[in-house]
Specification:
This protein is 74% helix and 0% strand. It has 8 helices and no strands. Helix 2 packs across helix 3. The radius of gyration is 21 Å and the shape is elongated.
Length: 109
């Protein structure tokens, strides 16, 4: 729905481009129905997108859905922008810290 709205298309306009009814587009958008692969590909092409994006959303969308802490998301974005050598070093530190916390939790139980 978001991609359709970015293009300022109505459901009817998108439906005409992918050769389905506007009511069917409405059902796809509300998740009451899932389009067959052939139609999904036509929708992705019409919206200048990919099937993967339509099905899974962006990586950032996934992160926001699974991470509730905005500060954590912000820091991960900053880490991702670091030079590879620095990013790798920081990820090793994070992995070590998490390992230590899990070890302490295991011994505390």
């Amino acid at each position: 729905m978001e991609l359709r709205k970015v293009k300022n298309w109505s459901q009817s306009e998108l439906a005409a481009k992918v050769e389905v009814s506007y009511a069917q587009i409405g059902r796809y958008e509300t998740k009451d129905a899932q389009p067959p692969a052939k139609v999904l590909k036509k929708i992705a092409d019409a919206l200048d997108s990919t099937v993967d994006y339509l099905v899974n959303g962006s990586t950032e969308d996934k992160a926001k859905a699974s991470l509730n802490d905005a500060e954590v998301i912000r820091y991960f974005k900053e880490v991702d922008a670091l030079p590879q050598e620095d990013k790798s070093a920081l990820l090793r530190v994070i992995a070590g810290f998490i390992r230590d916390v899990k070890t302490k939790q295991a011994y505390a139980s």
